[in-house]
Amino acid sequence: MIAFSKPTRGPEQQRLLFDRYPEFGFSGLQLKGGQYAAYLDDPIPGAERFRADWGSDPGHVSSLITMNPLDDDGRQRLAALCAFAGAVGAQRVVICHDVPREGLDDSDLVRFAGELSDYAEQAADHGVALSLHHHTGEPVMHRRDFDVFFGAVRENTLRLTVDTGHLLRSGVTDVPGLLTDFAGVIDNIHLKDYADDEFRLLGQGSVDLAAVLDAVTTLGPDVTLCVDEESRAEVLEGLRVSRDYLTEHLSAV
Q1: Please, how many CA atoms are within 13 Å of residue 175, restricted to the half-sphere of its CB?
Q2: Which of 28, 33, 39, 222 is the most exposed place for a label (fewest CB within 10 A)?
Q3: What average pLDDT does range 34-42 have in this prediction?
Q4: Cα separations (Å) of 176 from 74, 119, 215, 219?
């Protein structure tokens, strides 16, 4: 699957995204929190309201992305989100672990790995995978963090979403090497460009996307490739430029 993700401002932009992404060759959306949060207060009826408002195509909800710490409120939100994700037929919940990296040590990463392994098992009860999105400024950020954290994750529980823009922003430059090293847990790749402290349209930043796409060919067929478009471009420009870049560079994938 090749998916697309982009934050939107208000229902008109969201409707534009939902209506137009298939014509640009994308088979699914990975939704940001603001695109589904209004339906989480009561997840099962909320799923019905979401379908009524946005349609029942499972591609609309291929993944749901959340920024979520694991405090009491965060645990409740994550449980509600996993129930909602299962009810709307999402493949996965992608969690950005919204905890500051500063001041943490290896023991904290090991503890977080155990907690997120537990939540991944709970998500599986809803038929949904839980996938960690590493993030600049959050616990899994530096290259060594991946080794420590996933060395403590229980087997066949938590998955990994690799974000090429956040890797470069965090100082991790060997993206193909990381894809190779963690191929066993990767289920999702956020293809994103980055330069001069901002995310860019594909091909307009400093990420070696061609090398990333070459490495993608070595991963399993169930790994989702998602253009995570967080530049300043409007929705249709983001869709068009992303499609054109992939059309030119993805022939070997």
Answers
A1: 28
A2: 222
A3: 96
A4: 32, 28, 5, 11
pLDDT of residue 253: 37
* Confidence category of residue 252, pLDDT binned at 50, 70, 90: very low
pTM for this model (two decimals)? 0.95
| Angstrom distance (rounded) from CA 193 to CA 195 | 7
pLDDT recorded at residue 251: 61
Q: How far is CA 158 from CA 56, 105, 118, 177, 207, in A?
A: 27, 20, 8, 20, 26
CA angle (116 as vertex; 180, 187 as ends), nearest 5:
35
Residue-wise pLDDT tens digits, 200-250: 999 999 999 999 999 998 898 899 999 999 999 999 999 999 999 999 988
205: closest CA among 182, 183, 227? 227
- pLDDT of 184 > 50? The answer is yes
CA 61, 116, 78, 66 torsion: positive or negative? Answer: negative
